[in-house]
Structure prediction request, 131 residues.
Amino acid sequence: MSNVPHAPGSGSGSAADAATPPSPPSPPSPPSPAFAARVEPLGSSFPALPTQTLLEAALLAGVQLPSSCRNGTCRTCLCRLSAGRIAYRIEWPGVSYDERDEGYILPCVAYPESDVVIEAPLARLPDASQA
Prediction:
């Protein structure tokens, strides 16, 4: 038997050496507020979360925007942002400097940062007669 004192946490068997119980899980983050998105000249509006692209939000709301690649390269969804702010999460979407200066965006990779209005002449709602 040794007369050397045990350092805390060295396995002396005291209650202080017991593992600290894990902290309770953090409460879930409140949902992100949705912005209002409007498509002209269609006149249709839908909610757009800052965590989803404008294309995703439009499709969830039943607004059909032209699209193909959904990664910012084909430019099928190219349209003009006439009001509001967006952000891209990819380094260089397929929009030229001149197009960007004129307000053109790619909704397939554009995330809203405010309420937005986009000009997408080829946007449409599903035809009820085809449903």
Summary: The radius of gyration is 26 Å. The mean pLDDT is 84. Residues 54-60 form the longest helix (7 residues). The chain has two helices and seven strands.
